[in-house]
Amino acid sequence: MTKVIITGCSGKMGASLINAAASREDIEIIGGIDIVEPVNAKFEYAKTFSELKCSADVIVDFSNPVVLDSMLEYAVEKNIPVVICTTGYSEEQKKKIFAASEKIAVFYSGNMSLGINLIIELAKKAAAVFGDSFDVEIVEQHHNQKLDAPSGTALMIADAISEVKTDAEYVYDRHSYRKKRDKKEIGIHSVRGGNIVGEHEVIFAGQDEVLTISHSAHSKTVFAVGALNAAVYLKNKGAGMYNMSDLLKNS
Question: Taking 80 as the threshold, does the pLDDT of residue 72 lie above it?
Answer without folding.
Answer: yes
